[in-house]
Predict the structure.
Amino acid sequence: MLGDLWSFQGRYRTLHLTWFAFFLTFVVWFNLAPLATTVKADFGLTVPQIRTLAICNVALTVPARILIGMLLDKFGPRITYSTLLVFAAIPCLMFAAAQDFSQLVVARLLLSIVGAGFVIGIRMVAEWFPPKEIGLAEGVYGGWGNFGSAFSALTLVIVAGWLSFSGGFELPTGEILNWRGTIALTGIISAVYGFIYYANVTDTPPGKAYQKPAKSAGLEVTTMRDFWGLLGMNVPFAAILAVLVWRLQKVKFLDATGYTIGMVLVLIWFAFQTWGIIRTNRDLILGNKTYPKEDRYEFKQVAILELTYIVNFGSELAVVSMLPSFFESTFDLPKATAGILASCYAFVNLVARPGGGLISDRMGSRKNTMGFLTIGLGIGYLVMSLIKPGTFTGSSGIAIAVLLTMGCSFFVQAGEGATFAMVPLVKKRVTGQIAGMVGAYGNVGAVAYLTIFSLLPIWMGGDAAEPSAEIVAASNSAFFQILGIAGLVVGFLCYFFLKEPKDSFADEHADEAALVQV
């Protein structure tokens, strides 16, 4: 497969078109990070306000990934991905035209929906590649697509400078950056590619039927024990949205009435999700349906994969959002230089995520691969917590810090590849919903991590609006320690509770084999 990967024919053509769609959603999704300090200066935002925007950037991705997983299983990846790419232009243009903090928040919340695009490509790639190659294929899709965040960090400041001929915000250094035109441009490019994608892909290879679940209002489970487990794992989705509402109230975006309305909406969402699960599994609950052994799957598998995605992709989203400012404050660097150095974290995606999928394909045990990589990322973050002002100095110190960051990033993103090497193998006909839930848990982790990150300076006794350099450095170190400990805990859970998927290295998916036998 490695040799054929550079082909643009057949399934590889679909793979390349799909990872580029994901790449553009990540360019759009992370178009704020490299320009955050410019936006902060332009609007006179406080540190809590700019960190709240970072939280908003991942907030609605939680429900969006679940909903898109349902729509994906029902309508197919072609129309779902194309629609999302076109939609991305709307919040980008809203953000580019914003005149106050409230408008920035609304635009960023809507833009967080674009982050749900990842789920769609997981199902598309699974339709075109067999289980024995699924790890590398999904890794290429995820890794090369994830590079969109690094591309944003590397290029958007340069694009903003180039667009300054038409006006822009002047920084204290005299540099002029047209951040508004840059944000708008990313959305327009995404929309154009949405039409290109729709015209050039199909949901399945010729002659293959697209399998759909009988009901898509909630995830289908096959035992009552799994039903209760699914209900339990639905709670954190509502909890993290409640945290977001609380956070928006703390920065005075919501008043008391708005806070109450927000909490009621979260409860409505939770009730809607719970009812969808009950409705989908009604026959199982009433005892009218019993699944034969060969058609069952264990929801425990999904739950543990959700936890792995919290600690790998959830941490990546959080770290990508704070890393440019981390390098800027730790080494006293210009923001363009800090953005370039920070991009090394996501740059590793080009090889790490496909590498994680390839290792999962070749090592003979997807479970052990998952455990090893997750423990590795935990150790990597603990090492990153040692990067502090004065610890590494000069150009050599910066080079060491970059190498440590890239080493940690390899385990994080290889772990993501290993997670989604397993997701399509759990139960084919509900892959969209499983991918949506696992993917959404990545955003649960991101919101939780970013909320903790925003509160750490306060917990350490610093000024809420403008913490001192010492408090910022201490909170950065503590943040990486939290990420590291979480990774170690989940890594051990993988070794002791995760099970190897059925037919992990077969020539066809188990569900497809069953259909052929029938």
About this structure: The longest strand covers residues 169-170. The radius of gyration is 22 Å. Residues 513-518 have pLDDT under 50 and may be disordered.
